[in-house]
Amino acid sequence: MDTNSTPMEVESRALRTLEWDKLRTFLAIEAETAPGKELCLSLMPVAEQAIAEILLDETREALAVIEARSGWSLESLPDLKETLERLKAGAVLAPQDLNDARKTMVHARQVRKSLALLSAESFPRLVSYFPRLHSLDEAINAIAEAIDDEARVKDEASPHLANLKRELRRLDANIKEELTRIIHSPTKSKALQEPIFTQRNGRYVLPVNASQRHVIQGIVHDSSASGMTVYVEPMVVVELANKARIKEAEVEHEIARIVARLTDTVSKRRSELQSSYDALIELDVIFARARIATKYNGTRPELTPNLTFEIEEARHPLLVLQRSPEVVVPNGIALGGDKRTLVITGPNTGGKTVLLKLVGLIALMVRAGLLIPAKSGSKAAFFARVFADIGDEQSLEQSLSTFSSHMTNIVEIIERAGEGTLVLLDEIGAGTDPKEGAAIARAVLEFLNSRGAVTVSTTHFGQLKTLAYNVDGFVNGSLEFDDATLSPTYRLKLGTPGSSKGITIARRLGLKEDVVASSLKHLDQDSRDIDATVDRLEAALNEAINKKEGLEAEARVLDDLKRQYEKKIEELDREREAALKEQFGLLESEIAAAREKVRQITCDLQREPSLAKAQAAQKQIADLLKDLGWLSSTRSGATAFQVGDTVKVVSLNQVGTVEAVPEEAREGATQPYVVRAGAMKIKVQASDLSKLTEPGKSKRRSGARSPSAGYGKRQEPVAFFLRTDGNTLDLRGERVDAGLARLERFLDEAVLSGVSPLMIIHGHGTGAMKEAVRGFLAGSPYANSYRPGEVHEGGDGVTIVDV
Fold this sequence. Notes:
By secondary structure, the chain is α/β, with parallel strands linked by helices. The chain contains 23 helices and 23 strands. Helix 6 (95-116) crosses helix 11 and helix 22 packs across helix 23 (768-779).
C-alpha cells in the first residue's frame, strides 16, 4: 500500500471528489477573456489565510461595483501573450499585433479611469490595481494614426506612402484604360472571347480566342482547360504593369518601415504594456468570481481565528448553479473549537453526502477567494488543507468505491491530518463486517479528534451515535426525514442523532407486518435502545423547536408593539414641541406688545409728568400685568405691609412710606395701600409694592458705596423714571464747584423728604461736570447706587440716583 503521497496529492484527490473542476468550469463561463477563462479553469485554493483574505476582499469589492452597475467590459480584450513574447524576442510585429496592443492599451486606459473614480477607503483592493495600469496615449495615437480597425496600414500613415499609393492608383487606372481601349477597338475586339479583362498571376490580361492569338500582341499567362481561350497581357500594358510592380514593392517597403517604427514605439513601453495586460486579466478573474457569486447569492464570510465556522442558510453551490437557489434547501452548520467532530446520521437519500460536499466546497471556496452561498454574517474557518474520502452510490458523480480504496484514502488522511485541517469522511467503515466497520470508524474518528482536526463524517452505525455523549469534542447531527411522506427534508439538525429508518420505510412501502415484526426481533437490544433514545431525543428536540418558534413569534409581536409605541412617543414629542413653539411665539408677541405699551406710557409721562398721570400709568401697568397673567404668578406671595414700612412702588420705580393699610389686608383683601412718595400720596395694590427695610431701620450707610452698588449697575429693572420738579436737578451751565454745592443741598432735601430716585442733569459738554457729579456720588453716604440714564431718559447726559 502506497502511503508516500504528499499532502498536496491527498488534497488533489479531495478536490476531484468535491467536484472542484465542475465549479471552476462554471467560473470560467463568467470570465470575458480567453486568458481569464484559462486562469479560472486552473484556479486553486491558496494555503495562506492572509492571501485568502485579500482574494475575498477583491471579490466583495467587485461585486459591489457590479451591483452599482459601474463596472467595465473586457469582452473585446485580445489575447496578447504571443505578441508580448514576440516583443520580448525583438521581432517586428505584424499590423494585427500592433492593433491588438493598441486595443489592450485602450482597455487599460478605460479601466484606469474607472478605478480612479472609486473610493480608496471603500475599494482598497481594486484601487491597488491602479498603478499597474498605464496610460500609453502616445503609443495608442501612433498606432491609431497608422493602422485601421481591420489591421491595414492606412495610406496616410506617412507622406511617402501616400504618394506611392497615388502613383500606384494612377498606373492601375492607365492599365485599365488601355485594356478598355482594346476591348472597344473595332479590329481587336473581334479576337476576344469576351469583352472583359481579368487577372492572372497578378497581371491584367484579356481572354483571346486561341485561333486569333496573332491579332493581339502580348504575353500569354494562362489558358482555359479546353485550350480555346488564352489569357494575354497586351504589350501596351506590360510596361505599365512593370512600373506598377515596382511601385507595389516600394509600398511594401514603406509599410515595413512604418510597422518597424511602430514596433519600436511599443517595444519601448513593453514592460508597461505587460503590467497593464496582466492587471486586466487578473481583474477579469476577480470580476468572474464576483459574477458567479451573483448566481448563487454569495456573501463574504468572516474568517475566524480559531478554526470554527458558523454558516447560516448554506446551499450547495453546484446545485444552485445547475438549478436555482429557491429549490435547494439551505442548512446551518456550526462546528469547531471544543466541538470539532460532527457525526451525521440519518436515512439513505437524506442528503448526507451532499451536505458533506457542501462543507468541503465552502472551505475550498474561501481559500480561492470565492464568496460562499450562505447568509450574510456567516463565519468560516480557514483550513490550510482539506482531505476527503467521499464516493458511493449517493455521490453527485455516481461513483462507487470499495472498502479497500476507502481505507487507502483514510490511511493517507490520518497520516497528514492535524490541527488546521478539515477531514470529510462519507460512510466511514462501510463495506465490511458492521461490527468491525463500526470499531474502525470509531477509532479513526477518535484519533482525528485527538489530533485537533475538524472532522465531518456520515455513518449508519448506531454505535457512533453515542460518541457525542461519552467523548469530548464530538457532536451529533442528523438529516430530517418526514415519516408521513417517506421523503427527506434535507435539513440538518445539530445535537441529535438520526436513525436509518430502514424498517419504517419498509413498513410504509407495504412490507408484510409479520415480516416487519420479525425484522424488529432480529435487531439486537443495543440497536433497539439506541433507536428508542434517538426517537425520544427527536421528540424532545421538536418540542423545543416548537416552543422556540412560539417564543420568537411572541418576541416579534412585542418588537412590533415596541416600535409602534416608540413611533407614537416620537409623534407626541413632535406635537408637544410644536405646541410649545406656538405658545412661545404667542408669549413673545404679548411681551413685545407689553414692552411697547410700557414704552409709550413712559414717553407720555416724560413729556407731561403729573400725579394724576402717574396714578393712571400705574393702573394701566397693573391692568397690563393682570392681562398677561403675571400678577397671580409673580406676586401671589406678596406679604402684608405695616404703617411706616419703606417700600418701592414697582410699576413707578418710586420709593415711599406706607401711611394707611386696608382693614382686610391680613386676609389678602384687594383694597389698596396708601403710600407717600415725596409730596404725593398714591393708592397702590400690595402686588405692586416691594418692602425695602424693616420698620425703624434706616437704609442709609456710612462711608463709600459697597462694590455691589457700583457705577452702572441696577438693583432692579426700571420701567420708567417719573420726572418732577422735586426729583430733578439741572446743573447745565453751572461751574463745577457751584454745581457740587447745589447737588449736596439737593441730596439733603431728597433724603429728608423721602424722594427717590433722583435725576441729575449735567449734559455732555466737556464732561467735567459729569465726572465731578459721579465722583461726588461715589463718595456720598446718601447715594445707594447711581447709573447713566436710559436713552428715553436722556442717556449719558443725566445720572439717575437711588437714595
